[in-house]
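User: Hi! I'm working on a homework problem where we have to compare a predicted structure to a textbook description. Could you give me the structure for the chain below?
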Amino acid sequence: MMIKIDTSKWKPFKIDDLFYKLELKCLKKEFNKSFDVSEIRTEEFDLPLVNAKHFNNGIMYYGRSSDFESDEMTIDIVCDGAASTGDVYAQPQRTGVLYNAYLVKPKFVCNSECLLHYFAIVIEKCVKDHFGYDEKCTWDKVKKETIMLPVDSNGEPDWKYMENYMKTIEDKVCKSLSMLEKVCK
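Assistant: Happy to help. Predicted C-alpha cells:
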C-alpha cells in the first residue's frame, strides 16, 4: 500500500533557480570515437560518459579521465535520443559528457546522493512527457520548467525532508531485496 503524500503546502521552484548547466568538453583536439572511448570500464577508460542512453544510468561509454572535463554530484539530462530524450539520472561519481546529454549541478550545497536521486526523479517527472525526439530537451527549455518541492517554515526547499524520504525508500528497497534473496535460495 502506498501512502499518499500531502503536497498541499509544497511550493513551485524554477529548475534554473536550483541548478546550472555545466559546460564540459572533450579536451582532445582530434577525438576519434573508435579509439578514444570504450563500452567497458577499464583502468584506461575510467571515466563514465553520459550520452543519449535509455538505461544504465545514462552511461553508454567510458573515456580517459585525462581526455574529458568532468564533475561529480551532478544530474544528467538526455536532450536528444529516440527513446531516451528527457531521461534524467543522478551522477554522484565523477562523470563527463560525450554527446546528446548534459550535466547540471545544484546551486545549493549537495553532499547527499539521496538528494541527488530525489531531484533526478522530480526533474524527470517534470520533463519526460514534455519533450521527445522532435522536441529536444535542451537546457534553454528545461531551465524554465517548474518543479514542486516540500518547503520548510521559511518557505525554502526542505532538504532534510527530501533526503529522509529517499533514505526511507532506499531502506525499504534493500529490505525487500534481502527478503527476495532469502526466498530465492
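For your comparison, note the following. Residues 159-184 form the longest helix (26 residues). The longest strand covers residues 101-106. Good luck with the assignment!
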